[in-house]
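User: Please fill in residues for this 361-position structure.
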């Protein structure tokens, strides 16, 4: 690849949705390799609503690796991006594009730099998890560019090193991240429990309670929890293992009652563990608590759950309705209890789906 050779640019594009954990990952046993203290289970959203689209390009004319997020250049110095790039480069294979006259030998990938441009189809400032979609998409698209032959399990293990929850976004449908036992992380990867068509009655509604960026990032929050919370050990060793088995059954049998009870209980225990951290971490706010009350009262009055709620590291509610009819009722109740403010109305009128996003599976 000397200076006299013709210049070319090889590109690949991919799209990955974000995922919502119904049994949460919280706490690492190895910070560098991103190895969790427990298994977790999530639902991958429909890519039309909350997803990242990434284009990666390689060219002998690029002097360094660079990345742009939503059009703005960001530093690639962080160890996590570098880990993903390194792991994909290691697995790169020969690429030949006869039409463009491009021939890349696998050893050339070590010297070729990449440019990465990633966009989220939802506002990054809305405080919705974007790292899961972004890192999964980066790994997937780099793999496509460099012609890697790895299966999805292996790709999920690489995405895990970018952001833990990203490993679950490699698959659609219901996904389990198996924590693994090995110290090198080789068995810590995601598996698909059921594909997106398995339980397509469910409707997911995301109620954006606050569009502010969270004050405590997941990474630093879970580090503090691991160091200070006595409750975390009990959760990881005693509660989650049996919940995982029950959740797998609930998903397999499309048993909404068990699914909803487990989802709500696990969200509440995750936030209890945050409160048990020193200093305590408050991710939910008064509005989040009011949404929990609304759903709990409704479920109680029906005698059987109609809606499940779950909250990640922020105040926004993820509500899972058992079917479209229930989702319509839920929207009516939400709009009645939380009448839209003027600014929200502007967003509704602009058709901003992130305000109340119906991400039907
Ligand atoms: C509350 O995957 O963002 O959303 O591995 O440090 O990047 P890092 O953390 P991240 O944590 C997600 C935490 C969670 C629960 C979950 O998605 O399982």
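Assistant: Residues filled in for all 361 positions:
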């Amino acid at each position: 690849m000397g200076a006299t050779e013709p210049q070319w640019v090889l590109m690949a594009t991919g799209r990955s949705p974000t995922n919502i954990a119904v049994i949460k990952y919280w706490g690492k046993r190895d910070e560098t390799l991103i190895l969790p203290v427990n298994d977790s289970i999530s639902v991958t959203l429909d890519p039309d609503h909350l997803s990242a689209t990434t284009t990666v390009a390689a060219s002998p004319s690029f002097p360094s690796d660079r990345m742009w997020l939503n059009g703005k250049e960001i530093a690639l110095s962080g160890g996590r991006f570098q880990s993903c790039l390194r792991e994909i480069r290691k697995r790169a294979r020969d690429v030949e594009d006869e039409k463009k006259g491009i021939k890349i030998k696998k050893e050339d990938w070590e010297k070729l730099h990449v440019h990465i441009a990633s966009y989220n189809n939802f506002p990054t400032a809305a405080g919705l998890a974007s790292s899961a979609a972004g890192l999964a998409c980066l790994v997937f698209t780099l793999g496509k560019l460099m012609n890697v032959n790895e299966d999805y399990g292996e790709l999920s293990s690489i995405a895990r090193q970018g952001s833990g929850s990203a490993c679950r976004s490699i698959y659609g449908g219901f996904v389990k991240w198996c924590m693994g036992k090995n110290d090198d992380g080789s068995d810590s990867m995601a598996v698909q429990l059921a594909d997106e068509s398995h339980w397509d009655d469910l409707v997911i509604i995301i109620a954006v309670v606050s569009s502010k960026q969270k004050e405590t990032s997941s990474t630093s929050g879970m580090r503090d929890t691991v160091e200070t919370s006595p409750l975390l050990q009990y959760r990881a060793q005693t509660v989650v293992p049996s919940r995982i088995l029950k959740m797998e059954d609930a998903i397999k049998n499309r048993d909404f009652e068990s699914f909803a009870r487990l989802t709500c209980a696990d969200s509440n225990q995750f936030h209890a563990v945050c409160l048990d951290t020193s200093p305590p971490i408050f991710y939910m706010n008064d509005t989040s608590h009011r949404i929990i009350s609304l759903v709990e009262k409704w479920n109680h009055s029906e005698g059987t759950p109609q809606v499940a709620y779950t909250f990640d590291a922020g105040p926004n509610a993820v509500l899972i309705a058992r079917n479209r009819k229930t989702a319509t009722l839920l929207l009516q109740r939400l709009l009645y209890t939380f009448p839209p403010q003027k600014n929200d109305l502007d967003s509704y009128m602009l058709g901003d789906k992130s305000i109340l996003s119906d991400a039907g599976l």
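For context: Residues 21, 24-26, 34, 40, 129, 131, 163-165, 218-219, 312-313 surround DP6 (CB under 6 Å).
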